[in-house]
Fold each of these.
Amino acid sequence: MTPDSRNLLTWYQNSRREMPWRQTRDPYRIWLSEVMLQQTRVDQALPYYHRFTERFPDVRALADADLDDVLRMWEGLGYYSRARNLHKAARQIVERHGGKFPPNYDEALALQGIGPYSASAVLSIAYNKPHAAVDGNVTRVISRLFAIGDDVRKSSVQKEIRDRADALLDRAKPGDFNQALMELGATICTPVRPKCPDCPWQQECIAYQTESTSRYPFKSPAKKRPHHHIAVGVVMDDSGRYLIARRPDEAMLGGLWEFPGGKQEHNEPLSQTVRRELHEELGIVVSVDEEPFEVIRHAYSHFTITLHAFFAKMDKASGAPAAQNGEPLRWVEPDELTEYAFPKANRRITDTLVKYRTS
Ligand code: SF4
């Protein structure tokens, strides 16, 4: 039996959660919400969405903004390439499409950071275009509905899931259908203990009917993530300002600010890592405390780190710091640290510095 989209749409009408981006057909706000909700839960994204739309109410406002401002509004959401891409795409929309999100699929796909999922979601919801949007939630539902037992990371399986979603799509109401399917995955067809008795497609679902929901979606075990030790130096000048450096745009966490430092090499003492990195990166000689004043563990999607923060003192004879990669450096008053966007682990260091100051 093929699942009937009408059952899903009726369920969605009665059960959907109200969200600000569901009360608008404005493609900019729908696009923004879709970008924020990638890798982020709704309750976490909501305050960011409100702050962001207040500050940048439309595509033009976002395109006109400085990247630093955009990153600052994004700080805490993580996956900063999303914010950089959003900003760049806003500029492309202004330049190429007069400030209006393009209703054409290929033109949408040509924008920075817009993949098949985002293009389909925005076009179906804002413009009622018949494109099925497949995210992690939809992948889970479809793999269970049709008992797809192969690894969902395989491109052939992803294609099968997209084809299945496309065949199910309600062509009269593609936006509602896509949102309904994502909502089903988020609230009913959850990763563990799905609430199958409440599901509008329980009759058609092969996994439910064969009591095998826990088998889907199948993912082969992930490789262990590597772990790195990073040591950074907190250098203060005679006026009590801290030295911070901007990360290159093309690097991971590009455009964010950080305390200078780098990866430990060959098990060298971590204080030596700071001395070496600051000399290599900024051309300065520093003396470094033996022990870090803060140690932070943090996980990224492909690796984990332990960040060791040391107080360091600059030898004035080594001259003014200058970043070898040409990126800007700033000496910043402690009170100004909140005005710069930092990655999460570095933000913990600025919080500690502010605490030291007020205690
Ligand atoms: S019946 Fe259960 S496993 Fe199947 S789609 Fe519905 S919630 Fe998911």
Amino acid sequence: MARRTRSATRQDARAIAAAHVASWRENYRGLLSEEAIAKRTFEYRLEMWTRFLDEPQRSTLIACGENDEVIGFVSATAMRPPEFGFDAYLQTLYLLASEKGAGTGKALLRACATDLIARGCRNMALRTLRLNPARGFYEHLGARLLPPDFPLDAGHFDDVAYAFDNLQRLQDA
Ligand SMILES: CC(C)(COP(=O)(O)OP(=O)(O)OC[C@H]1O[C@@H](n2cnc3c(N)ncnc32)[C@H](O)[C@@H]1OP(=O)(O)O)[C@@H](O)C(=O)NCCC(=O)NCCS
């Protein structure tokens, strides 16, 4: 069964940072170099999430386990004006490996879509590693592969870009 989700607050920064580090270690071994994973320390992620959770244009939700611990999170930015034809950009969607496949990723993404729609967004772009099995998840939920030269947030990794052209449809998925 999918885990409970709620909006994140500044107080969640440490728990999200810890889950982020764990999720990269568990899910990205073999997809990214050990060096790239090791560089994203808890301190690195804490600085990032402290900043992210202060951004008013950002929608961040967490999924909680039985003891209220963070087991997954999603974060997207609403863009005003739109960039490259998109109103929103999905930066992160991660679960602990043990939590995958129970509907929680979909629940987080749908809740994020609901929040972005309330902010006036209609569509959303994202990037994911070229070899990431998560591509199947996004495609299953209706994402469209964008051309290889799609520029938004490009150049960090060997990745591909996708579009959710209709957030309303994603919300109802
Ligand atoms: C990608 C991720 C967020 C998906 O979350 P999840 O909870 O495992 O997926 P869900 O159980 O919510 O799956 C939702 C639907 O997608 C399908 N699905 C899930 N993963 C899939 C995959 N790899 N390929 C095809 N379909 C997939 C499910 O069968 C389910 O279908 P249904 O709604 O018709 O029953 C999660 O697996 C994860 O955190 N992966 C590691 C980190 C990562 O790569 N994140 C993406 C970074 S860009």
